[in-house]
Write a structure and sequence with these properties.
- The chain is α/β, with parallel strands linked by helices.
- The chain has helices at 12-21, 33-43, 67-75, 99-110, 124-130, 142-152, 167-196, 200-207, 215-225, 236-252, 258-274, 283-288, and strands spanning 2-6, 25-29, 46-47, 59-62, 90-93, 115-118, 121-122, 133-138, 156-163.
- The chain has 2 domains: 2-164, NAD(P)-binding Rossmann-like Domain (Rossmann fold, 3-Layer(aba) Sandwich); 170-288, N-(1-d-carboxylethyl)-l-norvaline Dehydrogenase, domain 2 (Orthogonal Bundle).
- It contains 12 helices and 9 strands.
- The strands form 2 sheets. It has a 6-stranded parallel beta sheet with strand order 3-2-1-4-5-6, sandwiched between helices.
- The longest helix is centred in the middle third of the chain and has 30 residues, at 167-196.
- The N and C termini lie far apart (52 Å).
Length: 289
Amino acid sequence: MRIGFIGIGNMGLPMARNLAKGAHQVTVYDSDPVRMARLADEHGVIKASCVTELSDVDLVISMLPTGKIVRDVYLAPGGGLASHLRPGTIAVDMSSSEPNKTRTLGQELDALGVVFLDAPVSGGVPRAESGLLTIMIGGDNPGAIESVKPILSLMGNRLFETGGLGSGHAMKALNNFVAAAGYSAAAEALAIGQRFGLDPTRMLEIINLSTGRNFNTEMVMKEHVVDGKFATGFALGLMTKDIKTAADLAIVLQVDSPLSALLSERWTSAVESLGATRDFSAAMLDWES
């Protein structure tokens, strides 16, 4: 299959690499020509000098920072990819985008003959590299979903159909909201414990053998926070965006969700203080100050 892959950042690069290893013809496009050149040299992918050079592919995958960028790629006036794709081409957005805006974009692409699916991922850079991501698939075309599953399985080993278009993005945002809540609780516990005189390493040892354990206490706090490494590979700005997406979804659906609103405010503070490109695991540095 001829696959176009747009966005080879921390996550997109290993994902595109795994597609190339699967013996598919992969054409990549990214704003960073150095990354494209390295991927081409290592794995024989084709470099596109502009996004419209993906016009003859069978499947387009996007892995981009925001839903707005995804929309611009497909519908930018005069240079959008959608108007150059063959009717029936499938486009899969694996970014973390806003679910309601994904639905709107899907309708606009459908009018141009492009089938749009959302399939965001969870698992971080290590699982992206090993092809063991969890993938949440939303879409209104069951046939298209079935046709892309073999491709998605090259990047992830846990594929979940979540419902109609946008449901994958909703699930991703809600998952990261829960993850952020776990991080926030652990960060506060460590701050309180250290002020009292407890050792943070011993605290995590006890928590991880007790009912308070979660992904952040077992992995993030233990491997990236206590020693000050702060290098999970997931940007603070992206985590904050996902939390805000979950909080905004609660508002639109009129769900009483005070915790999501509080977390959105707290993580936004961290971005304003530390910068969007800082690793998300450093967020507690702002809260401690």
